[in-house]
Design a protein that fits this description.
The structure holds 2 protein chains of 2 kinds.
Chain A (H helix, E strand, L loop, with lengths): L3 H24 L7 H10 L4 H35 L11 H15 L8 H21 L4 H25 L3 H11 L8 H19 L2 H7 L3 H6 L10 H20 L5 H9 L7 H25 L8 H23 L2
Chain B lengths: L1 E12 L2 E12 L3 E5 L6 H8 L7 E6 L2 E2 L5 H7 E4 L11 H6 L9 H5 L2 H9 L15 H15 L3 E5 L7 H16 L4 E5 L3 H7 L2 E6 L2 E6 L1 H4 L2 H8 L1 E6 L2 E7 L2
Parallel strand pairs in B: 3-8, 3-9, 6-7, 7-8
Antiparallel strand pairs in B: 1-2, 1-4, 4-5, 9-10, 11-12
Helix pairs in contact in B: 5-6
Classes of the chains: A mainly alpha, B alpha/beta.
Membrane topology (chain A): Multi-pass membrane protein
Subcellular location (chain A): Cell membrane
Main location (chain A): membrane
Chain lengths: 335, 253
């Protein structure tokens, strides 16, 4: 039997893993700088090639790894808890699609040439526009309305993204767009961290307030309501779940591109270790997502000699076998 | 002593009148059975009492407090509700599911898990031995007992249950009904139960409210409410008596 203390223990353990992986991410990369020397230089305030690589490339990349992975893991756990469906993932809200569309529009209009910030900002604007549209569509509706609104928004943004790809004049731009859509943390800077951080922090804070309501919802919506939880409406649990996941995921996808399977697989794998109680799954999923993305990003960097593997491709390659395994296990258990 | 006053409550959904000026008092220490044919408004009335639906007109009062203006968290501690279809819980332990009842008091984690009320409720419902078992593996009868146990963990003075024995075999139905009776007679709670089984209603309820077309047709002790002409008229069935208990026998010609 899993107690609350063991659930917290899992969080500490995963957070420690994230700590170790964070250090590894700083130390390890394409150029072999002397990590310790670079760190000493940073502390001494000297500016060398090592400190520039450490401070301006690896540090923001590792921080984004934690942020994006954590947000995807936590969003998956929150949505799966709220919908009581282990197959819910952050993509179903259509907000990632909005972010992708925003970014693709920046590619298409050539705003990329004006400023490097244009791309993540375009993604952020696309994501927030999708959040606003989703809120308007859902209003006072319940889970079914939310699912339908998310599906409609996903389909619509995917269609517009495809249209943009279709109309894009240069094949090079089309390649750039495809590449971006696969998701990556390569060459991200502190500007990207700054763009992603406010929405991610606000979203994470909102999601973490929903734990008790998610627990109550395991007994059904009627019982949860009778236990004093307000589910729908502007001040309801659904609003916190949707706004929290949408803000956080939208902000992250705007800077990293679409990274699939983290939000789906991480809560799925950790659920059994947290006693199947949704509230206990939230923090472990955050740290688990962060750890998975840092590992994946380090693997991507290992293969950097050839054409660089995109992060989203790798997470999908790792994520799908986990599902194959679950399918086989379910069949074996006779479920 | 009356604790829950339902006065003149009406409700319409999608242009259809579901409840028509329902008035009934619910006293502490009694089991009130809501009976009537399908579509009579029993479940809707219970949902209004549980705060899941706001009535169009009328007044719900708990002691001196008007329920319409009461905060949701206060109401949650006064009224515990068990829906008609009990959702099969995830593979949490039985004790974890029972302890979710303490969420009505804002308690969760180990505070709720080790709360004496949870142990007490598990013991009353005969689930203490199964406390560590995964709740999703329970049988239908055990699940109904767990839902009742979760409701007892709320420790509310009013218990509402919508057809709690509809899917249970006679032994489990008797067990669940006697637990409701115990909660009323021994612990002084007010219990409102929607029932279809007239024999169980006669056997376990202190008061019966017979509903028809959204209105209260009769209200009183089971002997009066289950009188042959009334049952025949409302349910369109004839009855035979086994002892004092009426059993539906045939469709009316």
């Amino acid at each position: 039997m899993i107690t609350g203390q063991q659930g917290r223990g899992l969080s500490f353990y995963l957070a420690a893993c994230v700590g170790v992986l964070f250090v590894v991410s700083l130390w390890h990369g394409e150029s072999s700088i002397a990590g310790m020397q670079a760190l000493q230089d940073v502390l001494a305030g000297r500016s060398t090639a090592g400190t520039i690589i450490l401070e301006q490339l690896r540090l923001p990349r590792a921080l984004l790894g934690i942020l994006v992975g954590g947000v995807l893991g936590l969003s998956g756990a929150t949505l799966q808890g709220y919908m009581r469906n282990p197959l819910a993932d952050p993509g179903i809200l259509g907000v990632s699609g909005g972010a992708a569309l925003g970014a693709v529009c920046v590619f298409y209009t050539g705003l990329m040439q004006v400023s490097l910030v244009a791309l993540p900002l375009g993604g952020l604007i696309g994501a927030f526009a999708a959040v606003a549209l989703l809120m308007l569509l859902v209003g006072d509706g319940g889970v079914l309305v939310l699912l339908l609104a998310g599906a409609a928004l996903s389909g619509f943004t995917a269609a517009l993204t495809a249209l943009t790809l279709n109309l894009v004049p240069s094949p090079y731009a089309s390649f750039e767009i495809m590449h971006w859509l696969m998701g990556s943390l390569t060459d991200r800077t502190f500007t990207d961290v700054a763009i992603c951080l406010p929405g991610a922090v606000l979203g994470v804070a909102l999601m973490l307030t929903t734990g008790r309501a998610l627990d109550a919802l395991t007994l059904g919506e009627d019982v949860a309501t009778s236990m004093g939880f307000v589910l729908t409406g502007w001040r309801g649990v659904q609003m916190r779940v949707v706004l929290g996941t949408a803000l956080a995921v939208g902000s992250c996808v705007a800077v990293s591109g679409a990274i699939g399977f983290v939000g789906l697989v991480v809560p799925h794998v950790l659920r059994g270790l947290t006693g199947y109680q949704p509230s206990r799954l939230l923090w472990p999923s955050f740290w688990g997502g962060a750890a998975l993305l840092l590992v994946a990003d380090n693997v991507v960097r290992l293969t950097a000699s050839g054409p660089e593997l995109q992060l989203g491709v790798l997470t999908a390659l790792v994520g799908s076998p986990v599902f194959f395994h679950r399918v086989l296990k379910l069949r074996k258990d006779g479920v | 002593m009356t604790c829950l006053h339902v006065s003149d409550v009406s409700l319409s959904l999608g242009g259809r009148q579901i409840l028509r000026s329902v008035t009934m008092p619910v006293e502490r220490g009694t089991v009130v059975g809501l009976i009537g044919p399908n579509g009579a408004g029993k479940s809707s009335l219970l949902r209004v009492l549980a705060g899941l639906k706001a009535p169009d007109t009328g007044r719900l009062q708990l002691d001196e407090q008007n329920l319409a203006s009461a905060p949701a968290h206060w109401r949650a501690r006064q009224i515990a509700f068990m829906p008609q279809e009990v959702v099969r819980p995830p593979p949490m332990s039985v004790r974890h599911v029972a302890a979710l009842g303490r969420l009505a008091h804002g308690e969760s984690g180990s505070v709720a898990f080790h709360h004496p009320k949870v142990t007490q409720a598990l013991e009353k419902t005969g689930l203490l031995q199964s406390a560590d078992r995964p709740a999703n593996r329970l049988s239908g009868g055990e699940l109904a007992r767990l839902a009742l146990c979760r409701m007892l963990c709320v420790d509310a003075p009013i218990l509402l249950a919508d057809e709690p024995v509809a899917a249970l075999d006679p032994a489990h139905a008797l067990m669940v009904m006697s637990l409701f009776q115990q909660a009323a007679h021994q612990d002084g709670k007010a219990v409102v139960v929607v029932l279809h089984d007239l024999a169980l209603a006669a056997r376990f309820c202190d008061q019966l409210v017979l509903m028809q077309n959204g209105a209260v047709r009769a209200h009183g002790v089971p002997e009066d409410v289950l009188a042959e002409p009334l049952v025949r008229d409302v349910y369109q069935v004839t009855t035979r008596r086994i002892g004092t208990i009426p059993v539906p026998w045939d469709l009316c010609p």
